[in-house]
Amino acid sequence: MIQWSEAYSVHNARIDKQHQKLFEMAARAYNMAHKQITPNEMKEILSEFFEYIKEHFRDEEIYMQAIDYPELEQHKRIHTEITKTMISLIKDIKTLNEMKEKLQVIAKNWLLEHILKEDMKYERYRRSLLIASMPENGDHFAQVIESEMSTREYHYICSCPNKIHDVPYDIHQKILNGAKFRCKQCKQEITYPRR
Question: For 118, left (φ over 0), alpha (ψ -120 to 50), or beta?
């Protein structure tokens, strides 16, 4: 599992703290999949994870509403989809191994796709508001944000199980413009996780 980094900050202390805790909880859940545990222990972890996600989604939606995020309704639908997936996971499990397997996928994919992709959208929107509200310093702030983005790494995946490629900003931009990069191990093209 990837670790929390300031690169994932949405510059809201409450939301960032919740994201950090979700990273920790997902890592714990992910690691439990490789240990001997009882079904009750696994259900307890799932339940705690699920309850915290619901609390986080509520707070995040309040924040997005406060900044007038234009894609709030779409983001809410994604939250609903994740919640339904978690409910389904808890209800439909037949074996402990199946539970472990599904939890691994949800913990990893949820972090990669939701926090690293969807939540970064409202952070970019927040930044655009910051620049727009300071026209006399707009060029300076644009340079600061561009500099910040250029030091960020993007997490790509390939066909290798549990492998994440940390891709620097310049390579990420090349890929967005059509360049192809392959994993040295599996020889498959690396891709940016998308919903």
Answer: alpha
Enumerate domains of the chain plus CATH numbers: 6-133 (1.20.120.50), 137-194 (no CATH)
3-class DSSP assignment, residue 164: strand
Instruction: Encode pLDDT of 8-40 as tens digits.
Output: 888 888 899 998 888 888 777 777 767 787 777
Query: Is residue 88 within 8 Å of residue 120, measured between CB atoms?
Result: no
Tokens 């970064």 belong to residue: 120
Handedness of CA 25, 28, 153, 147 (dihedral sign): positive
Q: Long-range contacts: 183-187, Cβ < 8 Å, 24+?
A: 183/158, 183/159, 185/158, 185/160, 186/158, 186/159, 186/160
Q: Provide the whole-model pTM.
A: 0.63
